[in-house]
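Q: Predict the bound structure with 6-O-phosphono-beta-D-fructofuranose.
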Amino acid sequence: MPLKQIIDTCFDTEVGANGLDRAEFDTVLKRTEPGLVWLREAYDTGALPLLALPGRDDDLPEITEAAAWLADGATDVLVLGTGGSSLGGQALAQVAGWRLPVLGDLSGRPRLHFLDNLDPLSLQSGLAALPLETTRVIAISKSGSTGETLMQAMAVISAFEERGLADRIGAHMLGLSEPLVSGRLNKLRKLLEPYGIRFLDHDPGVGGRFAALTNVGLIPAAIRGLDIAAVRRGAQRVLQPVLDHAAAAEVPAAVGAALSVAFAERRLPIDVMFAYGDRLERFTRWWVQLWSESLGKQGRGMTPVAAIGPVDQHSQLQLYLDGPVDKLFTVITTECADAGPRIDAALAAEAGQPEFAGRTVGDLVASQQRATVETLARNGRPVRVINAGTIDAETIGALMMQFMLETIIAAHLLGVDAFDQPAVEEGKVLARTYLEEM
Ligand SMILES: O=P(O)(O)OC[C@H]1O[C@](O)(CO)[C@@H](O)[C@@H]1O
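A: Predicted complex:
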């Protein structure tokens, strides 16, 4: 089912004075047109390889083979890498059942562990607990120089050696990094290749946070059994209107970018993504990096906040309904009516919840989604809705492409480069200095 975007509750007619008036919105929407032209040109010239990915299938056999190689006979697969080298894979794998409460890893496939946050205690206890004889590792870093990933890779190698498994390192690990460029040191390759570890190439033209549809995101997804061709099909469906020269109003990503920037210009500089369903939790985190690193530059940018429903109704909604009016909400809903356990009428009566009788858990969540959107609007909070239908491979591909396009178009509107992240370097240099001083 295609994504369905509903924006009525962003306008003053629905939410009162905090909403945009149509003319104001149309002016910002018109400003997205150069961004759309730029995207089409980038597609035609191949300047942005990300845009060619949805239509490609030539690389899928290599991705499928790598996933099968990692999973073959494995009880556990460790994914080393951080930021864009991890979050896309996490978002996709979660759609296929990874990291869900209780049942997440009971699929007969290897357990997946994404070691994206460097934490000394987690790493130590994790490596001690894992059956390394049957553990495979994929180390992902576009640059090959991210300290966290390098340190994790070194710790893993040492753990294999300490368990007397030094001779298996080459057969248990895979690397994924940019191809070697003469004169530039790739530390990850330098570290791992001497062990005979095979490397796949990270597409040098696709930045980490935009790499979910490359081998970076698709290998972990395929390990979990997600249909990776369908992920790309979903992405293509969202890209197509841009390539077909659709008017900005017919390109949901242009509409989304225009809304966000229009509200930011009105001093609503916070974007809250409120996604209903456990399977979208990591997706919201992936989006937070995409939106933050791509747009937060030169004093500009909108602050992303991630929430999932219904649980965050019980932690954040009070602020959203009654706190400062400084946010645009994007509520991602799913078709969940009729899904999940059906509630026994006698139990419902016994508990004093007669309205539960005969209803499914999905019926309640469907009602909650609707209620959240309406309550936000009634309290004068601008809210757009994206009805994602069923959360499957195609849907997550579509959502990822929608938000990547939205990010690129928003960057055009803000006048910033979506593809760099110069400011984060400063802290990395300082951390290295402090480490040397220790
Ligand atoms: O894939 P790499 O090069 O290891 O980078 C990991 C992450 O670190 C950053 O460069 C920020 O430090 C992100 O942009 C990137 O996704």
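A: Residues 82-85, 141-143, 146, 149, 208-209, 293, 421, 424 surround 6-O-phosphono-beta-D-fructofuranose (CB under 6 Å).
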